[in-house]
């Protein structure tokens, strides 16, 4: 179960102690998109999420967004992240390592210097752990999500997600 154990847990991206990540020597953050930074299939980030990314960049963090989603209908979101100078990696096929490696390459960083922030155990957490990236597991923003994700949520509950959902 070590592969399914997060480095940290938080209620949301706004409850993460990014200063402690910096003190641990982490200099980059890869964010999952849907139900982590924004609601599933949202056309753009809200002002709070965009502000968080801007603040983290000004603090010196290198950032990337990694999603299994597709870009169709989300051009404004892609433009928004581009204007924030945050690379967006579409169709990452998490938990397979290739998407995580593309994100690391876009940030020009090694896995040990980056944290992954996401809401899913069997995509975000498992994939990050396979690649050697410390993982911060957050609660999903909303309940609306891809049908395949709903199946994975059932598996998460069977694997003890409720015990994973506490805060560090």
Ordered list of secondary-structure elements with their pairings:
Elements: E1 8-10, H1 18-23, E2 28-32, H2 47-59, E3 62-66, H3 75-83, E4 88-89, H4 97-107, E5 114-118, H5 121-131, E6 135-138, H6 147-158, H7 161-164
Parallel strand pairs: 1-6, 2-3, 2-5, 3-4, 5-6
- Under the CATH scheme, which class? Alpha Beta
Largest sheet report: 6 strands, parallel
Q: What's the multimeric state?
A: single chain
How many angstroms does the end-to-end distance come to? 18 Å
Number of separate structural domains: 1
Low-confidence segments: 162-168
CATH fold call: Rossmann fold
SSE string: EHEHEHEHEHEHH
**Roughly how much helix do the residues carry, as a percent range?**
25-40%
Please indicate the percent range of residues in DSSP E strands (runs of 2 or more): 5-15%
Compute the number of strand runs: 6
**Global morphology:** globular
Describe the structure.
A six-stranded parallel beta sheet has the order 1-6-5-2-3-4, with helices on both faces. It has one domain (2-164): HAD superfamily/HAD-like (Rossmann fold, 3-Layer(aba) Sandwich). It contains seven helices and six strands; from the N terminus they run E-H-E-H-E-H-E-H-E-H-E-H-H. It has helices spanning 18-23, 47-59, 75-83, 97-107, 121-131, 147-158, 161-164; strands at residues 8-10, 28-32, 62-66, 88-89, 114-118, 135-138. The chain is globular, with a radius of gyration of 14 Å. With 168 residues, the protein is an alpha/beta fold. The chain is 39% helix and 14% strand. Mean pLDDT is 89; it is low at 162-168.
């Amino acid at each position: 179960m070590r592969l399914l154990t997060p480095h940290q847990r938080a209620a949301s991206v706004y409850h993460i102690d990014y200063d402690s990540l910096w003190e641990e020597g982490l200099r980059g953050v890869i964010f999952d998109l849907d139900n982590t930074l924004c609601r599933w299939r949202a056309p753009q980030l809200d002002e709070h999420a965009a502000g968080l990314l801007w603040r983290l960049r000004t603090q010196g963090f290198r950032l990337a967004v990694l999603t299994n989603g597709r870009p169709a209908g989300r051009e404004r979101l892609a433009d928004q992240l581009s204007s924030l100078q945050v690379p967006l990696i579409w169709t990452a096929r998490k938990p397979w390592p290739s998407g995580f490696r593309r994100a690391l390459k876009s940030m020009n960083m090694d896995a040990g210097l980056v944290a992954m922030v996401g809401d899913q155990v069997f995509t975000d957490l498992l994939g990050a752990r396979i690649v050697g990236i410390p993982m911060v597991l957050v609660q999903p923003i909303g309940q609306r999500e891809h049908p395949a994700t709903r199946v994975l949520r059932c598996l998460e509950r069977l694997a003890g997600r409720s015990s994973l959902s506490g805060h560090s």
